[in-house]
Amino acid sequence: MASARGGEVTIRDLSKSFSLGGRQLAVLRSLNLDIRSGECLVIVGASGSGKTTLLRILAGLERADGGAVAIDGREIEGVGEERAVIFQEPRLLPWLTVLGNVAFGLEVRGVPKADAEKRARFYIALVGLAEFGDAYPRQLSGGMAQRVGIARALTVQPEILLLDEPLGALDAMTKISMQEELARIWNEENVTMVVVTHDLEEAIYLADRVLILPKEKGGAARLIEIDLPRPRDRSESRFVRYREELLREFGLH
Q: Which residues form the ABC transporter domain (predicted)?
């Protein structure tokens, strides 16, 4: 079901502050960024650097103090159907089956039930859960539940997929498996993907480019192009060099 899409994002002079203890705390300062249609951009940074804030602004869940964000040349105003968000917790509706959860977003948009379920089954199969359409969330593992969340987001066929620490709650082996699944799905669906993560290896595995947000006041954001073939080999020497470069950025190497 993949098709040519838009999903180009333009960010200009973006700033955002929060009030903390009677003073203003700036988390984003005059950020300028172009996200290419169909690319996977991964955002990393220390706690408090504004990663999730930036993602929420892109999703339309948070308003910036200044600057502008546009998708395909149109400035965003709140949430929109061209964007779908996947959080760390899948937030499935416990009274609905896997099929019901994945079809839900289409049904509330007025898509006839039979058509919604047909499309939902396609995406349930895409994430490897074809045999679990009749299962309920309580019967799923954490990794399976997150797959359902991904299928639900993809079913509405967004131009942009926004993921906030989507694999952060999973064990190490499941996380690696899900990273491979995300890379495969991104490739098959031709969707612009923006991922927030604390996992530097995950960033290198998924990203076309990594955006490093500074925590220091007055620091500048930095973009690193990840020039590696796909699928990626975590033990390959260039992969290891990218990991060392990111570790140095955070003073960990």
A: 9-240
CB 182 within 8 A of CB 206: yes
Closest CA to 188 of 35, 2, 56: 2
Which amino acid, one-letter code, is at 131?
A: E
Span between the terminal Cα atoms of the chain, in Å: 43
Distance CA(30)–CA(15), nearest Å, equals 5
Contact 99, 121 (CB under 8 A): yes
| 44 occurs within a structural domain | no
In this prediction, residue 22 has a pLDDT band, given cuts at 50, 70 and 90, of confident
**Mean pLDDT over all residues of the chain?**
91
23 assigned to some structural domain: no
Q: How many domains does the chain have?
A: 1
Quickly list DSSP for 163-229.
EESTTTTS-HHHHHHHHHHHHHHHHHHT-EEEEE-S-HHHHHHH-SEEEEEP-STT---EEEE----
Token pair recorded at residue 177: 């498996």
Write the pLDDT tens digit of every residue in 105-151.
899 899 999 999 999 999 999 999 999 999 999 999 999 999 999 99
Does the residue 64 lie in any domain?
no
In a domain, 38, yes or no: no
Please give the helix or strand (H or E) that residue 241 lies within, else none.
Answer: helix 237-249
